[in-house]
Every structure is written in structure tokens, then in C-alpha cells.
């Protein structure tokens, strides 16, 4: 039976924020990675001729969009955008949220989202019926859905949702401008900057060299280079074992690949920490019991929404993860009976 330390990274956010292919022959290789916070691609959405009033114009993926008045019936087609929006506007201005935003498996603001009466799927007919005065979509939204909304003359902005730490500022500032809440946006940006500075100071104060090599699994998928999770790992002061083994993107990984990587730690990112994890079952295999992380009990769990969200909440996830990797004991620990936790925690 595999003895694991199951560490539930579900602490209070810093500063009070409410804030398949992996071959068995995978071998470590030098992989160039962008600087932490570097955006994956140039942004398209931008503010055009900033103004303090309305109407105001922005550019999105389809061209220029004019917002005639301060929006009071907002709906976004992204969990990440909802997580930002709840920090920028009063909930009374949010006409609906997606069902995923109200689901704690996928969202970090599920409790707040549950107070919004209208919870909808990505259905144009239902969205149009709610008469939103602004819908904000990400580049990942269904083109058919976007076309139906435009055909129904729903005010629509397709904004860049960039998965990087530095891009939080751009995402927040752009949404704040759409909503007419620039002051709220700048306050949130300053909060995120402080969280990132505190995290960098904490990681910089750790003497561990080389940095711990961490394999992050979501079920049986490993997070490689070019993923949001890769950025979270590096913010937390860790190396990404899958990226260093040449894996790009989120891909299913074979049992045979894990001993080749032999990570110092394995992080299981799970939707809910109150039920068994597919990743836990995966690691029960006898073929993995000599892997360093499993042999030393350095397997931890973190809420998946804290590492794959494209909002400021992934800074919370990176902070929680950094404190766990470097021995902080401020996190709830569920121990295997009769064993002592790793890292000297009581």
C-alpha cells in the first residue's frame, strides 16, 4: 500500500485576497523556457484612446468595439474572467455566471458565484434572453457561440486571456476598463504585485540548490512546458520535471516515464480534495514505488483550480505550493497513521 502525505493546500489567500503521449523512453533534455510571467503570444485586445467616461472603445479579436454606457448586466464566458470580475464589480452587476464558475471543482469563487441567480451553460439562446449589456469572452470560447451572440446584437468583447503571471495586470486592467472600474483594477493589481513580491522574497530566501524537481499531475496527465501549471511551478521556486524531460503541453503520461524523470516531489492537482484522486490510484502501481518522491513520501495534493486558472488565483496556488515544498507547516496535513511527515513538520 502506498503511504502518501496528502497535503490539502486550501489556506487563506495571502494578504486576505478573496482572491496522450509520453513515451516510456522520455529522457531529460535541455528545454528553453520563457521567463516566468512571459505571455505566450502578443495580445490583440487593447484599450483605444483611453477615456474616463462612456462611451469608450476597445479593440478585440474581431475589430473595434464601442461600449456605450457603464455595463450593469455583465456576463463572462470564462471562469478566469469571472474570478477577476468578482473583484472588480459589485455582484449585483453580474447578470449570470457559467455553471463551471459555480462549481467548486473548477472555480475559486464558487461560493460567490452561487449567490448569482442565473447560472447558465454556454447557450446563446439562454444568454440572449438575459439581456446582458456586456458579454466578455476568452479566445477559447466556441466560435459558433460567439457568432450567434453577435448575430443577436449582444454587446461582445473577445479579450485575450493570457496564462502568465505578468499578464494578470493586463487582464485585470483591460476588464476594469470595460467595466468602468479603473480604480478597483489598479487596487487589485497592487495586491497581486505584493503577493508576487512576497512570494519571490520567500522563494529567494530558501537555500535549496538545485531547486526541487516537481512532477505535477492532473489525473494521469502531466503538465509540461508552455502550460499555466508550468508557470505556477516556477513561481513556487520549483523545476518542472515533465518540461525538463521534453514534454510540452498537458499530456497523458505513461507509468514508465515517471521513474526516468525520478522527481523530488509529485504534486497531484485534483478538482476536489474531499474524495479519492485518480492520480493517487495511478501512483499505487508497484512499478513506481522506487521513484524518489514516492519512496520519501513527498507526494502532495493541491486544488486543481489554483494551478490551472487564468486569474490572480494561481498566484495563491503558487504561494501555497512554495510554502509546502520548502517545509512550511501552516497547511492542513493528513498523515498516514504511525509515520512522521516529511520536512520536519510536527
Helix amount, in percent?
25-40%
Beta strands, count: 16
Average pLDDT level = 83
Largest sheet: 8 strands, mixed
Helix and strand content put the structural class at alpha/beta
Write the layout of secondary structure elements.
Layout: E1 6-9, E2 46-48, E3 56-60, E4 63-67, E5 74-76, H1 79-88, E6 97-98, H2 110-113, E7 119-120, H3 124-129, E8 134-137, H4 143-151, E9 156-158, H5 167-179, H6 182-204, E10 213-218, E11 221-223, H7 228-235, E12 239-240, H8 241-244, E13 250-252, H9 257-261, E14 265-270, H10 278-283, H11 292-295, E15 299-303, H12 305-308, H13 313-325, E16 333-334
Parallel strand pairs: 1-15, 5-8, 6-7, 8-9, 10-12, 10-14, 14-15
Antiparallel strand pairs: 1-16, 2-3, 3-4, 10-11, 11-13
Helix pairs in contact: 1-5, 5-6, 6-13, 7-13
Written overview of the protein:
By secondary structure, this protein is of the alpha/beta class. The protein is built from 13 helices and 16 strands. The protein has helices spanning 79-88, 110-113, 124-129, 143-151, 167-179, 182-204, 228-235, 241-244, 257-261, 278-283, 292-295, 305-308, 313-325, and strands spanning 6-9, 46-48, 56-60, 63-67, 74-76, 97-98, 119-120, 134-137, 156-158, 213-218, 221-223, 239-240, 250-252, 265-270, 299-303, 333-334. A hairpin with a 2-residue loop joins strand 10 (213-218) and strand 11 (221-223). The longest helix is centred in the middle third of the chain and has 23 residues, at 182-204. The two termini are 23 Å apart. The model is unreliable at 1-41 and 329-346 (pLDDT under 50).
Amino acid at each position: 500500500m502506498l503511504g502518501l502525505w496528502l497535503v490539502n493546500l486550501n489556506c487563506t489567500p495571502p494578504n486576505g485576497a478573496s482572491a496522450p503521449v509520453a513515451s516510456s523512453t522520455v529522457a531529460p533534455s535541455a528545454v528553453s523556457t520563457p521567463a516566468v510571467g512571459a505571455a505566450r503570444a502578443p495580445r490583440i485586445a487593447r484599450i483605444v484612446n483611453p477615456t474616463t467616461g462612456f462611451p469608450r472603445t476597445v479593440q478585440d479579436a474581431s475589430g473595434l468595439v464601442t461600449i456605450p454606457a457603464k455595463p450593469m448586466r455583465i456576463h463572462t464566458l470564462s471562469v478566469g474572467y469571472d474570478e477577476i470580475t468578482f473583484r472588480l464589480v459589485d455582484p449585483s452587476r453580474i447578470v449570470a455566471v457559467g455553471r463551471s464558475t459555480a462549481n467548486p471543482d473548477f472555480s475559486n469563487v464558487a461560493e460567490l458565484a452561487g449567490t448569482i441567480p442565473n447560472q447558465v451553460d454556454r447557450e446563446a439562446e439562454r444568454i440572449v434572453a438575459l439581456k446582458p449589456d456586456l458579454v466578455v469572452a476568452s479566445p477559447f470560447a466556441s466560435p459558433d457561440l460567439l457568432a450567434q451572440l453577435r448575430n443577436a446584437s449582444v454587446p461582445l468583447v473577445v479579450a485575450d486571456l493570457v496564462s502568465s503571471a505578468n499578464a494578470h495586470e493586463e487582464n485585470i486592467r483591460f476588464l476594469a476598463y470595460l467595466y468602468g472600474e479603473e480604480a478597483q483594477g489598479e487596487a487589485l493589481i497592487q495586491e497581486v504585485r505584493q503577493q508576487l513580491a512576497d512570494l519571490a522574497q520567500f522563494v529567494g530566501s530558501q537555500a535549496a540548490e538545485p531547486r526541487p524537481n516537481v512532477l505535477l499531475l492532473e489525473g494521469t496527465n502531466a503538465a509540461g512546458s508552455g502550460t499555466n501549471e508550468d508557470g505556477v511551478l516556477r513561481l513556487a521556486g520549483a523545476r518542472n520535471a515533465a518540461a525538463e524531460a521534453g514534454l510540452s503541453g498537458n499530456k497523458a503520461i505513461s507509468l514508465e516515464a515517471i521513474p526516468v524523470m525520478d522527481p523530488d516531489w509529485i504534486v497531484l492537482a485534483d478538482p476536489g480534495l474531499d474524495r479519492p484522486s485518480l492520480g493517487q490510484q495511478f501512483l499505487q502501481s508497484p512499478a513506481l514505488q522506487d521513484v524518489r518522491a514516492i519512496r520519501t513520501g513527498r507526494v502532495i495534493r493541491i486544488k486543481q483550480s489554483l494551478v490551472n486558472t487564468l486569474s490572480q488565483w494561481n498566484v495563491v496556488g503558487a504561494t501555497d505550493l512554495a510554502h509546502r515544498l520548502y517545509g512550511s507547516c501552516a497547511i492542513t496535513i493528513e498523515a498516514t497513521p504511525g509515520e512522521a511527515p516529511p520536512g520536519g513538520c510536527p
